[in-house]
Amino acid sequence: MSGYGFVFPTQSDLQQARRDREQVRTIPVWTVGYDANDSIAPLLVERIALNARDAGLALQPSTSRSTDLRLVRLSIVSTDPWIALANVAAVASLSIADAGGNSVQDLYRAEQALLATQRLIPLFHLPATYAFYQVPEGLVSGADGSWRLADAW
User: Fold this and answer.
1) Most confident residue range from 8-12, 63-67, 141-145
2) Prediction pTM value
């Protein structure tokens, strides 16, 4: 969310994952929960389970509320990165460190501290896009991407 995602490697290291897995004698089967009303969540959880299997881990998809892991879809609620980060932390029942300032470095440190808890693993960001055959008259979008439909026709 801070815009520094490009700094982190995106290539998977399956060999290292397998070496790490071999350090543990017994690996339990973990359940991965998802919202049954989300039409895309089952597909994502199945893909995650397949990738985990490649590394020697066993994940079992489940719609139960009581699971070991949970796939959650979060919306970025603000274009202000501090507000967005605070919202993500709140949804994950975590807190972010006191900003102490408003610099980009403070934002980066706060985001890294949140990720260091290892209770939140961002998978990807998919921006919302819209397409119109003809743009409705009076349609205006806010700075946060929301639509002001009251005067549209």
Assistant:
1) 63-67
2) 0.67
What is the rounded CA–CA span in Å between residue 37 and residue 19? Answer: 37
Neighbours of 46 (CB within 10 A): 14
CA angle 10/15/21 to nearest 5° reads: 105
Give the whole-angstrom CA distance, residue 14 versus residue 140: 47
The token pair at 3 is: 């815009």
> Can you tell me the distance from the alpha carbon of 147 to that of 21, in angstroms, rounded to the nearest whole number?
47
Element (H, E) at 34: none
SS3 for 59?
strand
Q: What is the DSSP letter of 58?
A: E
H or E element at residue 33: strand 29-33
- What are the C-alpha distances in Å from 151 to residues 136, 139, 143? 10, 7, 17
Helix (H, G, I), strand (E, B) or coil at 128: coil
pLDDT digits (tens, 9 = 90+) for 54-85: 888 899 999 998 999 999 988 887 888 888 88
